[in-house]
């Protein structure tokens, strides 16, 4: 397939900020499209600020690569989970790529009292070294007569 563009169209294409266009679907999701004219060098390593589910709507030969992993093919109809702050990038395919992206924020745990927070914090560090924590119990000292 050969794509013919006028000089003005090509200039507009080359001067854009991102190698994709977004169309809002609703508050949590949008449609992102990458043209077959996108250069592989434009598809850079990056991280997203929110967790995402990415569903492939259209595209052939495109691949998704996570940091320290081999690229995996993106097939139409598949959904991929991308955790927030995870480095990843796309590898260009042979056609246009259209994906539906649903973003969400992972809810934070709510603690009822400050003591609950301290217990959870200590538990987090205890699990790092896989050592059980010994909690000193209060011994009831019975007074003998």
Amount of helix? 10-25%
Q: What is the level-2 CATH architecture name of one domain?
A: Sandwich
The helix/strand series, from N terminus to C terminus, equals HEEEEEEEEH
Sheet with most strands: 5 strands, antiparallel
Number of helices, counting only DSSP H or I runs of 4 residues or more = 2
CATH superfamily of one domain: Jelly Rolls
**Given this structure, which CATH class of one domain is correct?**
Mainly Beta
Structural class: alpha+beta
What ranges have pLDDT less than 50 throughout 5 or more consecutive residues? 124-134
- The share of residues in extended strands comes to 25-35%
What is the CATH topology of one domain?
Jelly Rolls
What does this molecule look like?
The chain is an alpha+beta fold and 145 residues long. The chain has a domain at 7-104: Sandwich (Jelly Rolls). 16% of the residues lie in helices and 28% in strands. The protein is built from 2 helices and 8 strands; from the N terminus they run H-E-E-E-E-E-E-E-E-H. It has helices at 7-14, 114-128; strands spanning 21-24, 29-34, 51-58, 63-66, 72-73, 79-82, 88-91, 97-104. Strands 1-2-8-3-6 form a 5-stranded antiparallel β-sheet, with no helix packed on it. Strands 5-4-7 form a 3-stranded antiparallel β-sheet, with no helix packed on it. It is elongated and about 65 Å long. The chain starts with 6 loop residues before the first helix and ends in a 17-residue tail after the last helix.
């Amino acid at each position: 397939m050969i794509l013919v563009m006028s000089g003005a169209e090509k200039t507009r294409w080359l001067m854009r900020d991102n190698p994709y266009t977004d169309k809002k679907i609703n508050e949590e999701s949008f449609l992102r499209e990458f043209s077959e004219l996108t250069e592989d060098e434009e598809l850079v390593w990056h991280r997203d600020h929110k967790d995402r589910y990415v569903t492939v709507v259209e595209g052939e030969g495109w691949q998704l690569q996570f940091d320290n992993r081999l690229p995996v093919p993106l097939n139409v109809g598949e959904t991929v989970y991308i955790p927030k702050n995870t480095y990843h990038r796309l590898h260009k395919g042979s056609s246009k790529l259209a994906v539906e992206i649903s973003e969400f924020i992972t809810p934070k745990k709510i603690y009822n009292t400050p003591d609950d927070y301290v217990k959870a914090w200590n538990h987090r560090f205890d699990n790092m070294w896989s050592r059980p924590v010994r909690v000193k119990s209060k011994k009831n000292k019975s007074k003998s007569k």
